[in-house]
Amino acid sequence: MKALHHYGTALQIAAPLMANINSQNGPALYLFTTLCFSFTLGLGPKPGDFLLVGQQGIAQWLVQIQGMRSLLETKPELFQDDTLAPLFQISVRSLAQSVAHIDHFPELRERIQQAASGYPEVAQYLKALDQLSQRFDFALHSTPRVTQQLVPQQVFVWVYLLEDDFVRLLQEEKPIALVILSYFCILLNGLSSFWWTRGWVKHLLSEIYSSLDEEYKIWMRRPMEETGWIPG
Q1: Spatial CB neighbours of 76, under 8 Å, sequence gap ≥ 6
Q2: What pLDDT is attached to residue 31?
Q3: What single string gives the DSSP state of each residue in the chain?
Q4: pTM for this prediction
Q5: For the residues 221-232, what does the mean pLDDT come to?
Q6: What percent of the chain has pLDDT over 70?
Q7: Domain coordinates of the chain in residue numbers?
Q8: Is the pLDDT assigned to residue 86 strictly greater than 70?
Q9: Structure-model confidence comparison of residues 25 and 129, the more confident one
């Protein structure tokens, strides 16, 4: 309860500052956003929570990350504080990292193209899938040492890069968007040694599965097999 109280107080202080980020407060607010994300995961999942979106709409930490992404892309000079410069350099390298350009989801891609052909959102589905495939590239080709240091950051780069339109599709619980999120759970499952991720894979797969019609539940076979999750 004390942690939630302090978290709420911090949000009240940070919210007004987010509207007026400058070179003095930018690095600190970036770190605050990162801590908000970690805190949210550490609290654990709740019913109806899809990590990125929930019953209250888009997750607050995701709104903050989207704001920070916009600023990093348009005004990177705000985050060049000497103390934190190495952190931002690592972040930039992580965003650019792509190893093999292999399509890790040919079957899912074909299903999406067939089911959503002619719908405007198919472009958003395929872009999100391409970005997720790049994260799989890094995870599958990293050495154990690099994996231990960078996989958490590399895994959540996918979340960082998601476009607003795809997040909206998740919020509307569009089945294909939810299926793509279930494939993200394969990567998230690789972070099971980090305490703050525990419980999320099982929860997300359960929530997604329960939200899908029988037709789309079949599409989740690979995430279920690779994570070992079985519907209860």
Answers
A1: 88
A2: 80
A3: -HHHHHHHHHHHHHHHHHTT--TTTHHHHHHHHHHHHHHHHHH---TT--SSEETTEE-HHHHHHHHHHHHHHH-GGGG--TTTHHHHHHHHHHHH-------S-HHHHHHHHHHSTT-TTHHHHHHHHHHHHHHHHHHHH--HHHHHHHHHHHHHHHHHH--HHHHHHHHTT-HHHHHHHHHHHHHHHTTTTSGGGTTHHHHHHHHHHHHS-HHHHGGGHHHHHHHT----
A4: 0.84
A5: 94
A6: 82
A7: 2-96, 106-227
A8: no
A9: 129
What Cα–Cα distance (Å) separates residue 119 from each residue in 77, 116, 122, 123, 199? 39, 5, 6, 8, 35
pLDDT value of position 141: 60
CB 107 within 8 A of CB 221: no
Max Cα–Cα distance, the chain, nearest Å? 54
Give me 223's structure tokens.
Answer: 């995430």
Residue 224, C-beta contacts closer than 8 angstroms, at least 6 positions apart = 205, 230, 231
